[in-house]
Amino acid sequence: MAHQAHAYHMVDPSPWPLTGAVAALLMTSGLAIWMHFHTTTLMSLGLVLLLLTMYQWWRDIIREGTFQGHHTPPVQKGLRYGMILFITSEVFFFLGFFWAFYHSSLAPTPELGGCWPPTGITTLNPFEVPLLNTAVLLASGVTVTWAHHSIMEGQRKQAIQSLTLTILLGFYFTALQAMEYYEAPFTIADGVYGSTFFVATGFHGLHVIIGSTFLAICLLRQAQYHFTSDHHFGFEAAAWYWHFVDVVWLFLYISIYWWGS
Amino acid sequence: MFRTMNAVQQMARRSICSSARRQVENKVPQKQKVFQEDNGMPVHLKGGSSDALLYRATMALTVLGVGFTLYELVKASFPQKKD
């Protein structure tokens, strides 16, 4: 068997970039077709293809790292850079929505009544469910750190318990936020207040769901002995993403829920 | 008497252990053997026949999807007859 004289990972040819690109094509065209002709077939096909691509691509990465040993220290370093750069790009994504919020709220137009919150908007009490949500996410930040230390110390059962608790807290946040959305006295169509509120908190909620899913995959992998005490980058990436989601919420809470009320 | 008590205690412990929790076996060494086998298979097919099935289904959807997209886009490019 030919052996490489370097520590880097020359990947096997893979079909997933192609299927992923086609999924993007189907989802975008499908979105346009849905808007004009009211059929969701194309978009749904794209979504299914996206899910299949994600499952198989990430399954292959786990095979390459955990089963084939390709994730040497320099390769892991590259993966770390990659995750950090991705999270940075997400920070800029949210920055845009915060920009929109501050643009409208720092100088409220006469159409809004010249005030923020705009005339006629009943804001949510920041010291009720939003405060509970803040506590829930902060607690989940503690439990995910506990899980990390458990993994590093080789404490298998504790790692599973703390990771499970983190995921449950994530689900609790999502459930509370869904209830808040249902009970809110304003909608996304209620002027710029409604738009900035629901788009910013909505994208945040989506990221909570993504983060919880990532952590759930890590829980399955931890249960299947994939992580060792000094090599568990998949978990670290999930934990970084989870802390990012927590920090975005803190900014949302202080800006939109508290200052904006 | 103590020997019987010990035996009962041991039996009780053993049955509680096996019924209260399924033990997850460490299958990583097996997986490592399968995926490090020198059979020239690319990683996305190296797991066996279920890999090939899933790959074929995904590729079929990909090809069909491109075709369907082109059809819908061409259809949308022409004026629609309104009744």
From TrEMBL, chain A:
Q: According to Swiss-Prot or TrEMBL, what is its membrane topology?
A: Multi-pass membrane protein
| Gene Ontology CC | mitochondrial inner membrane
- Family matches, as SUPFAM superfamilies: Cytochrome c oxidase subunit III-like (SSF81452)
* GO annotation (BP), single: mitochondrial electron transport, cytochrome c to oxygen
* Reactions that this protein is recorded to catalyse: 4 Fe(II)-[cytochrome c] + O2 + 8 H(+)(in) = 4 Fe(III)-[cytochrome c] + 2 H2O + 4 H(+)(out)
Location, primary (coarse class): mitochondrion
The molecule here is called Cytochrome c oxidase subunit 3
List membrane-spanning regions: 16-35, 41-58, 79-102, 129-147, 159-177, 197-220, 240-260
Its job: Component of the cytochrome c oxidase, the last enzyme in the mitochondrial electron transport chain which drives oxidative phosphorylation. The respiratory chain contains 3 multisubunit complexes succinate dehydrogenase (complex II, CII), ubiquinol-cytochrome c oxidoreductase (cytochrome b-c1 complex, complex III, CIII) and cytochrome c oxidase (complex IV, CIV), that cooperate to transfer electrons derived from NADH and succinate to molecular oxygen, creating an electrochemical gradient over the inner membrane that drives transmembrane transport and the ATP synthase.
Q: Where is the Heme-copper oxidase subunit III family profile domain?
A: 4-261
Listed under subunit, the entry gives: Component of the cytochrome c oxidase (complex IV, CIV), a multisubunit enzyme composed of 14 subunits. The complex is composed of a catalytic core of 3 subunits MT-CO1, MT-CO2 and MT-CO3, encoded in the mitochondrial DNA, and 11 supernumerary subunits COX4I, COX5A, COX5B, COX6A, COX6B, COX6C, COX7A, COX7B, COX7C, COX8 and NDUFA4, which are encoded in the nuclear genome.
A molecular function (GO) held by this record is: cytochrome-c oxidase activity
Keyword line:
Membrane, Mitochondrion, Mitochondrion inner membrane, Translocase, Transmembrane, Transmembrane helix
Q: Where in the cell is it found?
A: Mitochondrion inner membrane
The record's InterPro entries line, in alphabetical order, gives:
Cyt_c/ubiquinol_Oxase_su3, Cyt_c_oxase_su3_dom, Cyt_c_oxidase-like_su3, Cyt_c_oxidase_su3-like_sf, Cyt_c_oxidase_su3_a-hlx
TrEMBL record, chain B:
Which Pfam family would be a valid example here?
Answer: COX7a
Q: How does it sit in the membrane?
A: Single-pass membrane protein
Annotated TM spans: 53-74
GO cellular component, as recorded: mitochondrial inner membrane; respiratory chain complex IV
Q: Which GO terms describe its biological process?
A: mitochondrial electron transport, cytochrome c to oxygen; mitochondrial respirasome assembly; regulation of oxidative phosphorylation
Q: What is its main location?
A: mitochondrion
Does the entry feature the keyword Transmembrane, yes or no? yes
Q: Which CDD domains match?
A: Cyt_c_Oxidase_VIIa (cd00928)
Q: Which pathway, metabolic or otherwise, does it act in? A: Energy metabolism; oxidative phosphorylation
Q: Where does the record place it? A: Mitochondrion inner membrane
Which parts form a coiled-coil structure per UniProt?
none
Q: Name one GO molecular function term.
A: oxidoreductase activity
- Annotated keywords: Acetylation, Membrane, Mitochondrion, Mitochondrion inner membrane, Oxidoreductase, Transit peptide, Transmembrane, Transmembrane helix
Which protein family is it in? Answer: Belongs to the cytochrome c oxidase VIIa family.
- Which protein are we looking at? Cytochrome c oxidase subunit 7A2, mitochondrial
Read off the lineage from the record. Answer: Eukaryota, Metazoa, Chordata, Craniata, Vertebrata
